[in-house]
Amino acid sequence: MKTSATLLTTALLASPLTALAVQSNYTYVEGDFVAHGEAETRFGGFRSEEDYDGYGFKGSIDITPNLFIESSYDELDADNNGGELELFSGGLGLRAPIGDNANPLDIYGVATYESLEENDGSGIEADGFGVTGGLRWQATPTLEINPYASYLDYGEIDNSNADLDGMRFGVDGVLNVNETFALTAGYRTTKLDIEGPGGDASLDLENEIRLGGRIYLTK
After folding, report:
1. What is the pLDDT of residue 213?
2. Where do the Outer membrane protein beta-barrel domain residues begin and end (predicted)?
3. pLDDT value, residue 79
4. Domain limits, the chain
5. Which of 13, 81, 155, 162 has the fewest CB atoms inside 10 Å of its own CB, making it the most exposed?
6. How far apart are CA 47 and CA 184, in angstroms?
7. What is the 3-state secondary structure (H, E, C) of 57-120?
8. Measured between alpha carbons, how far is residue 8 from residues 147, 173, 212 in Å?
């Protein structure tokens, strides 16, 4: 974890950051390294905690000045028990500028298809929908701040009578090195509840730290 932070800091200091008047760009591809996360599972009196890491990919395409399509895929691996969680999201977004030209601010919302599969013998597979709202604020000509919140409803878990839903909260920072490339860092927490005839349970993915890079496909 310390090594990843040191590498990111070195890259930032070494990069020629020019004063770009950057508007929020919604056409890009991004790769993330999930450096750290903490998974907690609860069922009745049972409680399990596990650290995890992994990787993720994300892409977005502008289709009109106010509409965009985005999708993401994450693969998260538990450090000790070999468990693996795959998450996919994809959908249509709407954005609107509400800030001034000096520090552009966009408010956006996205409606998504969501799927989740846990490959650790538990057999948890589910798919449903999500709704995300957030801000993209150009705090400086090179630094963008992106706080967001999501409601996730995966519906009924396959081959069970249990439903899975919850919330996700996060914030991303995007440091634009130039008009084509940016460095990214993010923090997020996901809290999911399982409700079924056998009792309620929860799956929390907390304190997730993500480091990555983004390539803009248009200027």
Report:
1. 98
2. 9-170
3. 84
4. 2-216
5. 13
6. 33
7. EEEEEECCCCEEEEEEEEEEEECCCCCEEEEEEEEEEEEEECCCCCCCEEEEEEEEEEEEEECC
8. 21, 12, 9
- The whole-number pLDDT of residue 44 equals 75
Q: For residue 69, how many C-alpha atoms fall within 13 Å in the half-sphere facing its CB?
A: 4
Cα(166)–Cα(52) distance, rounded to whole angstroms? Answer: 20
Residue 85, token pair as written in the block: 């969680």
Q: What is the 3-state secondary structure (H, E, C) of the chain?
A: CHHHHHHHHHHHHHCCCCCCCCCCCCCEEEEEEEEEEEEEEEECCEEEEEEEEEEEEEEEEECCCCEEEEEEEEEEEECCCCCEEEEEEEEEEEEEECCCCCCCEEEEEEEEEEEEEECCCCCCEEEEEEEEEEEEEECCCCEEEEEEEEEEEEEECCCCCCEEEEEEEEEEEEEECCCCEEEEEEEEEEEEEEEECCEEEEEEEEEEEEEEEEEECCC
Architecture (CATH level 2) of domain 2-216 = Beta Barrel (2.40)
Residue at 112: amino acid letter: T
Residue ranges in the chain whose pLDDT is less than 50: 1-21
